Amino acid sequence: MPYHDYWRSSASYRVRIALALADIPWRSVAVDLVDGAHQRPEHRSRNSQGLVPVLDIDGQRFTQSLAIVEYLDTTRALGLLPAEPAARAHAQALAASLAVDVHPVCNLSVVRHATGGEEPARTKWMQHFITPGLTAFEALLARYEHNPYCTGDTLSIADLCLIPQLYNAERWGRALHRASAHRRGRHRVLDAPGVRPRSPGRGSPLNGHVYVHGGHAGCRRGVPGDEVPLHAMFQ
Ligand SMILES: N[C@@H](CCC(=O)N[C@@H](CS)C(=O)NCC(=O)O)C(=O)O
């Protein structure tokens, strides 16, 4: 199954988790965003938006990570979205708060356009949007018992958006806090081969794991008990 993705792309990461949950074998066809491969005709012919990911599956080509996740959820009964309409809308709102509202302004092309790709403006830009986005997400989690995932005892579409966003937050927050992350409530798919961001040359950039547990989603450095909730991570 060819999957056109980029290792650091949050949108690609969401779909990798869904593919692992569905036990669908896939082969990464890397589209190097830093090299500009996504803008070339070869990739534009796959996705006129010039974005990743693009998934070829079931004889069709799909773009837009949330649409792909929902397609896999429906066709493979992954249980990522509740059937009950109100619960479904709440789970979708959690997902959209990150994927629709935070993610686009932190996209490579947007950040380059806004900051010229220069530091420290680039990192400041990222933190400016990621911090309130995660704080709001955490407030939205208040309606749920975390057991141990965002909306209950199994991964949901909200987790599929949160996990890449926390990876991204760690990446940009590290300059200030050197926060590594630790996830409790581990799920086998998150450790499945190829799911986590993995630099082709240097291995995984993640030292730790995301956790979503005990009333908070967040990150942890060091020993158990060291949790830092989202709202405290990037102040
Ligand atoms: N809404 C799209 C967003 C896709 C997207 O923005 N992908 C990023 C990588 S995470 C990308 O291709 N960025 C290229 C750029 O900014 O030029 C989705 O969820 O699939």
Structural overview:
The protein is 42% helix and 12% strand. With 235 residues, it is α+β, with helices and mostly antiparallel strands. The chain has two domains: 2-76, Glutaredoxin; 85-233, Glutathione S-transferase Yfyf (Class Pi), Chain A, domain 2, CATH 1.20.1050.10. α4 (85-102) packs parallel to α7 and α5 crosses α6 (121-140). Mean pLDDT is 80; it is low at 175-186 and 202-235. Bound molecules: glutathione. Residues 9-11, 33, 38, 51-53, 64-66, 99, 107-109 line the site of glutathione.
Report strand order across the widest sheet. Answer: 2-1-3-4
Large-scale geometry: globular
Proportion of residues in helical segments? 40-55%
Average pLDDT rating = 80
Q: Which structural class best describes the helix and strand composition?
A: alpha+beta
The low-pLDDT segments are 175-186, 202-235
Helix segment count? 8
Q: List the bound ligands.
A: glutathione
Question: How would you characterize the largest beta sheet?
Answer: 4 strands, mixed
Q: So, CATH architecture of the largest domain?
A: Up-down Bundle
- CATH topology type of the largest domain: Glutathione S-transferase Yfyf (Class Pi), Chain A, domain 2
Number of strands: 7
